[in-house]
Structures are given as C-alpha cells and as structure tokens.
C-alpha cells in the first residue's frame, strides 16, 4: 500500500528545496536531487547508501517510508541515471539518451529475441564470463560498436549481477573431471553440477589471496581449466569472505601427496615473499626516517633461523645497503633532524606572523631573539623557509611581468574605428562579444554574438562549452568557408 502523507508532513516536506511536488499519496523529487542520489548510489548500490544520502540532505527516512526508498532504487536499476527531468530552475535534463531500437540491437548480433523481449546472445555471455571483471561489460559493448548508455543500464546491470553471482545455465563439470577429483583430499563433493571444497582448503589458501584463483587451485593440484568459470568465481568469492571458522582438523591423505602440497606451498610462499619485497622496494623512497628505522628494526628482529633468507639477502631484495642498515640501527637520533626542523620552523613562523607584514631572512634574524628567545643563523633560516615554501618575495624581480608588458606593447593593434561605429554602410563593421550562461551544478556555456554596428541587428550567434580562440573566430571562418 503506498505511503499517505499527513498535512503536517506535507507542509514540512514542501519546504525542502529538493521536493518538486508533494501530495497525500505522491512525492516527486527534483531532477537535480535525483541525479545526486544516483551518483551516491552508484558508488555503493544499497538501501543504506540511499538512506544516508537522504539524511545528509535533511530528509527523515521514517517519514518518507520504505516503499518510496525502494521505488527510488528500482528506478535506478531499471532506467539508470534520471532522464527527462524538468523543473523551473534547471530546465531540460542534460543526461537524456535515446536508447537503441530492439531491431538495431538484434542486427548487431549481441542480442537475440526471447519470449520476454531481447536478451544478450550466448556468445556474448560466454565471452563476458571469460573476461569479466578484468574487462567491463561496457568495454565489451564498445568493442562491438555499441554505446553502453544507449543499450540501457538495466540490461547491463542484470548481466553484471548474474556474472557476480556465478549464474550461467547449461555449464557443467565434465565427466572426466568428476572422475579425476572424486578422491581428492581437499574436495568435499564433485558432481556434474556441484563442486564443494573442504574448510581446510580455505584455511590453507587464505594466505595466497593475492594470487589468481587458478594459481591458488594449482597449489593444491586442482586444475582450474577443468572447472567452469562460475565455480572458480564462487571459490574466489568464498575465499575473500573466509573468516577461518574451520575445526582445524588435518587433511587425511598419503605421505607422497602431502609432500607435493607442501612443496607447492613453499614455492608459492617464496613467490609471495618476493612480491612483498618488491612492493617494499618501490615505496622505500617515500618512507619517512621513522618508518625506515622501524623497517630496519623489523628486519633485525626476524627469526632468520626459520627461513632461508639472511639479513644480507633481505637487504638486497628490499633495496637498503648494508652500511645504511647498520648506520640507522646504531644512530639513536636517526630521524630527529626532521623533527627538529619542524620545531625550529615553528619559531620562524611565529616571527613571520608577528604584526602581519612580510619579513625576509634579515628581519627574522633580528627579531627571533626578542620574540622567541632563540638565535638562528641566516643560512639556516633561509634553508628552513625554502624547505617549507615560505620564501618572502618583496624585493624579488618578476621578469615575467616585464616580458608580458613588452609583448602587449609590441602586439598592440591600431585603433581604426575610433568609436565611429555608425559612419559606414550596413555589413561593413561587425561587432562581437561573449556572454556567460550559468546553469545546472556550476556549469557554464558561452554565447558569442555577431552584431552589425550600423543597423544594430544580430547577424548570427553560436554557443560553445569552451571560451577559446575558436569561439571568437568562428564567424570569420564561416564566411571564408562560404566564399570558397
């Protein structure tokens, strides 16, 4: 049953600038606000996101009711960004897109006819299952020459939901794969339609979450190519959300199989450690002195007797020289210079803010003892001011201004009209100017008009989204093109 608003609720909601129309059984939001809601919802498609956005704009969700919020989400899923919205402030929507006809989509061979209209073809779905999510649905449609906005958001959304849920009809596990994995220690159930792994698999595989699902399955001697993509996506999804709620029981298997799995895990762990070492090597230049010292302490405290890596090999992989490593560990004041510079600059900043006028190094040098009770040399003051980008530029010569003045003087054009606009025949003297048209959310359009100085008639006009030389010269180019 639809929500019915009381007179007090109608009076309260009608005061909101985001409500276009309200009656007892209907609430209409402005097109601008519906676009804002859609932009926030698309970041995290959920009811919670809609509620939080409505609260941030002063709406009471309990007053609006669950049905209105659900209808907003249904319209977003079905039609995508709000279109054809009109109100007295913002005018016609900028996001109106004319969708493709069904016949055009069928001719593109991306869609086929069905009982409920048209659906994506099986070939396109197979390709999407193989490449999604590394390649988006929108990119696949563009590769077929189709505009995703004209295909329709609802069709793309439904296909994404099926891909993420692992839904793909008529895709079964082969009989050879079922026979191959029937006695596998880590597989709980394997049939033509079902594939389930034991909890111990997720406990041991969670450490390799950064690998692809095929590499993770290969560690446990499961060939990913034997399984449909929906099964692999489902395993990856469960592995990401795994919380370690197994019974910690050991897998019952023969000694040879256990040795092979341990060997595969050790090789994968070595590859994983190399990947992390490379990541540390890349971010090492951006680390602060405190972070570098913490890294060296962490390397020192590693139990090296449990691993094959010595301190020298770890330092080589991380990118720290041996001399720097021992120098950082032995220096108790390492990184304190940065902190001391911050403290000293606070004194300089206090002098610079004194009475509000700008000060150079000489003035700061003379005022520091009286204001802060400390004394710095001029070289140190200059170094700290340069370091924290607080250089005083009172007497600095600005050569660019001098160059600009000389360029303006040399490029100045003669005044041929001398404000005698009407002492000519119509069509001989044309005037032009640019006007700014504000609309929407901080959007600007530029209007350029060409006016006859004698008759006062507007000869032509044009609008553009950019105020550049092309907008100023468009009429000259147009006349030149017509004359040719």
What does this protein look like?
There is one protein chain. The chain has six domains: 7-79, no CATH class; 102-165, no CATH class; 175-269, no CATH class; 288-333, no CATH class; 336-387; 430-483. Mean pLDDT is 82; it is low at 85-96. With 484 residues, it is mainly alpha-helical. Helix 5 packs across helix 10 (153-165). The protein has a three-stranded antiparallel β-sheet with strand order 7-8-9, covered by helices on one side. The longest helix is centred in the middle third of the chain and has 29 residues, at 255-283. The protein starts with 6 loop residues before the first helix and ends with a helix. It is built from 23 helices and nine strands.
Shape: extended
The portion of residues assigned to helices is: 40-55%
Query: How many separate helices?
Result: 23
Distance between the termini: 69 Å
Strand order of the largest sheet: 7-8-9
Average pLDDT level:
82
Number of domains: 6
Radius of gyration, in angstroms, nearest whole number: 35 Å
Structural class: mainly alpha
Low-confidence stretches: 85-96
Number of strands: 9
The share of residues in extended strands comes to 5-15%
Largest sheet: 3 strands, antiparallel
Features:
484 residues, mainly alpha, 6 domains, three-stranded antiparallel sheet, two-stranded antiparallel ribbon, 11% strand
What's the gist of this structure?
The protein is mainly alpha-helical.
């Amino acid at each position: 049953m639809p929500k019915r608003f009381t007179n007090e609720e109608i009076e309260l909601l009608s005061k909101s600038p985001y409500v276009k129309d309200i009656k007892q059984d209907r609430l209409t939001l402005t097109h601008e606000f519906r676009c804002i809601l859609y932009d926030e919802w698309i970041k995290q498609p959920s009811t919670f996101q809609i509620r939080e956005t409505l609260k941030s704009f002063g709406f009471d969700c309990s007053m609006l009711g669950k049905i209105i919020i659900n209808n907003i989400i249904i319209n977003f899923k079905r039609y995508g960004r709000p279109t054809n919205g009109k109100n007295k402030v913002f005018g016609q929507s900028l996001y109106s897109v004319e969708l493709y006809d069904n016949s055009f989509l069928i001719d593109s061979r991306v869609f086929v006819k069905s009982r409920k209209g048209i659906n994506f073809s099986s070939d396109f779905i197979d390709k999407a299952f193989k490449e999604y999510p590394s390649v988006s649905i929108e990119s696949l449609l563009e590769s077929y020459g189709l505009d995703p906005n004209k295909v329709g958001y609802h069709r793309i959304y439904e296909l994404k939901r099926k891909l993420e849920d692992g839904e793909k009809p008529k895709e079964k596990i082969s009989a050879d794969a079922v026979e191959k994995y029937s006695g596998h220690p880590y597989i709980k159930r394997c049939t033509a339609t079902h594939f389930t792994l034991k909890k111990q698999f997720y406990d041991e595989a969670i450490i390799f979450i950064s690998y692809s699902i095929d590499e993770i399955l290969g560690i446990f001697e499961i060939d990913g190519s034997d399984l449909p993509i929906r099964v692999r996506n489902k395993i990856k999804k469960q592995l990401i959300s795994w919380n370690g709620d197994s019974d910690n029981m050991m897998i019952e298997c023969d000694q040879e199989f256990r040795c092979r799995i341990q060997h595969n895990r050790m090789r994968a762990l070595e590859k994983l450690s190399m990947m992390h070492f490379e990541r540390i090597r890349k971010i090492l230049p951006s680390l602060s002195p405190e972070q570098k010292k913490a890294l060296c302490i962490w390397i020192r405290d590693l139990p090296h007797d449990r691993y094959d890596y010595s301190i020298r090999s770890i330092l080589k992989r991380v990118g720290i020289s041996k001399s720097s490593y021992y120098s950082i560990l032995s220096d108790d004041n390492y990184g304190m210079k940065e902190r001391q510079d911050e403290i000293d600059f606070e004194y300089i900043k206090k002098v610079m803010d004194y009475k509000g006028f700008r000060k150079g190094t000489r003035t700061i040098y003379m005022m520091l003892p009286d204001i802060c009770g400390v004394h710095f040399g001029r070289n140190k003051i200059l170094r700290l001011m340069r370091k924290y980008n607080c250089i005083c530029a009172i007497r600095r010569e600005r050569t660019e201004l001098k160059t600009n003045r000389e360029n303006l003087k040399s490029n100045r054009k003669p005044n041929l009209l001398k404000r005698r606009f009407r002492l000519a025949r119509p069509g001989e003297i044309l005037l032009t100017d640019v006007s700014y048209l504000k609309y929407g959310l901080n959007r600007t359009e530029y209007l350029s008009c060409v006016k006859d100085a004698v008759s006062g008639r507007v000869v032509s006009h044009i609008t553009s989204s950019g105020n550049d030389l092309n907008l100023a010269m468009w009429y000259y180019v147009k006349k030149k093109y017509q004359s040719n």
